[in-house]
Write a structure and sequence with these properties.
InterPro entries: UTP_pyrophosphatase-like, YgjP-like_metallopeptidase. The protein is of the alpha/beta class and about 240 residues long. The protein is built from seven helices and eleven strands. Helix 5 crosses helix 7.
Length: about 240
């Protein structure tokens, strides 16, 4: 993944080359990652020039919203719906068969929800299978987001727990941090911000200037990530 820097803001981007294009095009989704579609004839300098020309558009697209998005509509967990994972929306396919209980798996960019075919499976049971998968995945993946920050802060052993936190994305407790499992729905940049925020409390108990300076040493564009979470946090739901 490449990165484009606008001041302290870091924008990840991916270049997709195509023989059918004659110009360079930009697009961005809620993952905060930029996709650049370019012809094979384009050079790195051409792409960098387009990024510079579109700098204002990139910033406006990232942070131009003035209010929180509405939460998504309730899902029925049917084939064709999309589920968030690390900030990307992935298509869901429901497969009926001789399964004892609903079970969710993720494979090759697609969610597969296996459900029993001999009964009318309720939306509640399907949702629980989805939540269980998110929870297990969050327990497995989120703690690793802290490794670099723990080293940079010179901390010793830190306990990292993943739980249901009704009104917070993270919490610092003496000797460890607790992360909301729903962060697994968010872009990794946002996961990193929350982790860095909570670890910074190991050095500073309150949100003082010193605290935010510490966060800034770990995540230089923390203001933009914090704003993204404020604007989009309600969409991180199942």
């Amino acid at each position: 993944m490449n990165e484009y820097h606008i001041g302290q803001t870091v924008v990840p981007y991916e270049v997709k080359w195509s023989q059918d294009r004659s110009t360079i095009g930009l697009s961005m989704d809620h993952s905060m990652e930029l996709t650049i579609k370019a012809p094979y004839s384009a050079t790195t300098e051409d792409i960098e020039q387009v990024l510079d020309d579109k700098k204002e558009w990139i910033l406006k697209t990232l942070y131009g919203l003035s209010e929180q998005e509405d939460p998504p509509l309730d899902k029925e967990f049917l084939s064709g719906e999309k589920l968030l994972y690390n900030g990307r929306r992935n298509r869901l396919r429901v497969a009926e068969g001789e399964y004892p209980e609903p079970d969710l798996q993720f494979d090759s960019g697609q969610f597969i929800l296996s459900v029993p075919d001999d009964s009318d499976v309720s939306t509640r049971r399907k949702r629980q299978a989805v939540v269980d998968w998110y929870y297990r995945t969050a327990e497995r993946e989120l703690p690793s987001r802290a490794d670099d920050y723990i080293a940079k802060l010179g901390l010793g052993e830190i306990d990292i727990d993943v739980r249901e936190l009704p009104s917070r994305w993270g919490e610092y407790r003496s000797g460890g941090i607790v992360l909301n499992w729903r962060l697994i729905l968010a872009p990794r940049k946002i996961q990193d911000y929350v982790v860095a925020h909570e670890l910074a409390h190991s050095k500073h108990g309150d949100h003082s200037d010193s605290f935010w300076n510490t966060v800034g040493t770990l995540v230089p564009d923390y203001r933009e990530r914090r704003e993204w979470l404020r604007l989009h946090g309600s969409t991180l739901s199942v």
